[in-house]
Amino acid sequence: MSREPLLKVYGHVYPVSAVCYADLAAACADALPDAEDIPVLERDGDMARISFEGVYFPVDEVLEVLARHLGAEHKGKLDVLDMEGWRLTRHVFEGGRITSSSAPLNNVLDYSGH
Question: On the chain, which terminus has fewer CB atoms closer than 10 Å, C or N?
Fold first, then answer.
C-alpha cells in the first residue's frame, strides 16, 4: 500500500566545492525518503541537486551548511512542500544570502495557473 509523501523538497545550488558538497551530504544523511534507491543529493558538474519525497528532511541542517558556504557567486533555491500543512516554503540563495518566503499551496497553484 503506497501513501502520499508528507514532505517534498527540491532544489539546487551552484557552484559547489567538494567541501560544500561533502557537508551537504552529511546534512542530508538523516533524511527519511520514501524510496531508498533514489539519491537525495546528487552532483552535476559544479551544481548540487536535492530531490526528496518522504517523511523527514533535515531542512535546518541543510540551510546551516549553505549559510556557512554561500558566497556572492552562489545561486540556487530550495523548495520545501509540506503536503500535510499544504504549504510551500522557498529558500533562495543569491549574493551570499538566504531569503525565505512561505505561502499556502493553493496560492502557489493559483499564481502558476494550475
Answer: N
CB 67 within 8 A of CB 83: no
Q: Is 27 helix (H, G, I), strand (E, B) or coil?
A: helix
Give the right CATH number for 7-112 from 2.20.25, 3.30.70, 1.10.20, 3.30.1380.
Answer: 3.30.70
Q: Please check whether residue 54 is in contact with residue 32, taking contact to mean a CB–CB distance below 8 angstroms.
A: yes
**Can you give the pTM of this predicted structure?**
0.89
pLDDT band at 79 (very low <50, low <70, confident <90, very high): very high
In the chain, where are the structural domains located? 7-112
Q: What is the CA radius of gyration of the chain?
A: 14
Q: Find cell 499551496 and name the residue.
A: 105
Q: Which of 98, 111, 108, 105 is nearest to 62 (CA)?
A: 98
Residue 54 is classified by DSSP as E
